[in-house]
Amino acid sequence: MNTDFSTNFVRSPAALREHPALVLNADFRPLSYFPLSLWPWQEAVKAAWLDRVQIIAEYDVTVRSPSTEIRLPSVVVLRDYVKPARMAAFTRFNLFLRDEFTCQYCGSRGEMTFDHVVPRSRGGRTTWENVVASCSPCNLRKGNKTLKQSGMRLRQPAMRPSPEQLQNVGRKFPPNFLHDSWLDYLYWDAELDA
Ligand SMILES: [Zn+2]
């Protein structure tokens, strides 16, 4: 079975707008909390047809083909348990999630950018341990200085989170909690250059 199920949630955001199905793992927990694991109804119907999922709830909406009529699934459960990834992917979105969309210098929320704790010009690498979410003013203030030179402090050490830690942070955000500035990242799962 394809274990990288998470990528299925981000391929066609437009198709998710109407009647998406919530996808649960075989243990009845959402496959992903944030972004919430959703499939377009077409995929949910197909997966049910292939007996890969069990439908446990439906919308009050039917679609017809010449030969049959089906109600759209609203919740489906995978037949086979998908093991969570062993390592959290190093993506922009996961990094924002680790830092809870909060500037790691001043604690403000809202529009975020990234800051290299050890600046790239000083050999700082693009890794979990050296990149943090930062607001623009803090990013500007820190510039090419080291932490010590800037006199700024990290609210918590930058570390690689476990997939469980990321899931736990994701639970703090209700499903429809979408800040405008995050939208680009919600559907962007490419890895950052390491
Ligand atoms: Zn800040």
Automatic annotation (TrEMBL):
Keyword field: Endonuclease, Hydrolase, Nuclease
Annotated HNH nuclease domain residues: 90-140
An example molecular function term from Gene Ontology annotations: nucleic acid binding
Top-rank taxon, per record: Bacteria
SMART domains: HNHc
InterPro entries in alphabetical order: HNH, HNH_nuc, NA-targeting_endonuclease
Record carries keyword Nuclease: yes
A Pfam family this chain is assigned to: HNH
CDD domains assigned to the protein according to its UniProt record, in alphabetical order: HNHc
Database matches in PANTHER family: OS07G0170200 PROTEIN, SLL1193 PROTEIN
Protein name (record): HNH endonuclease
Species of origin: Paroceanicella profunda
